[in-house]
Give the backbone structure.
Amino acid sequence: MMKLRSLKIICLIIMACAAVVSVYGQVRAVSLESRILETFNGDEDDPFIWRTQASRFATVMRDANGEPIQDENGRPVRYPRTAFVEAWPIQVFGVNRNNELTLRSFGINGRFDRRGYNWIDVFPTLADDPEGRPFEIPIPGRVQNMDMWVWGANLRYFIDVFVRDYRGVVHSLPLGNIDFPGWRNLSVNIPNNIPQGRRTLPAHAGLTFVKFRIWTRPAERVDNFFVYFRQFKILTDMMEVLFDGNDLADPANVERLWSGN
């Protein structure tokens, strides 16, 4: 009797494992594509203007006479300074000695009055927005990885990248430390706990890029430093499963169908 009961238990375990394999062992088709979200080349037709904002101990800029520089509202202008400069990672674009292309990178020059966990936010605004409001870049597909070329001066700083999911939750992801000399490609995988889809239709619910944040560490100098960005891109799954009535899950098509009712 005991042997028969043990045999039944073993059979039930095997059946349960087979059921799990049949459900989770199915391979979902994917279509991975590499997309550049921002070249950081400073082209005239770039839809974005990149702006910065720093934490409270950012140094006030001064003119040649040592006087504080003020904005149009009479407030002191603080670091960081930004500019598109003629510099780039040779590993990606080569030496470019013949000037066949105009190659640039986005440079950030920061200064703080005190050491600590200071930060500089780098975020996009729309080029045609006169108010310069922060704009979140829609990320196509279901993104799996983000990477960017960064020039570091071997300072013990690090960079986070911020994304927002369809629920409005902002997630901070560690792009990497920049305690290295010269150019290096930094990357981060998007964890599975960040939702990029819904159970109900329309199922796809992509992320938006919010900003980068450069952090300084308390033991590192912050009196004057430079960081450069080039070619921010993603690896994303563009596969969409089609079904009968797929067009009725497209919000733009639904808006068109119901516009006259």
The CA atoms of residues 152 and 178 lie 5 Å apart. The mean pLDDT is 88. The helical segments are 2-24, 90-93, 251-258.
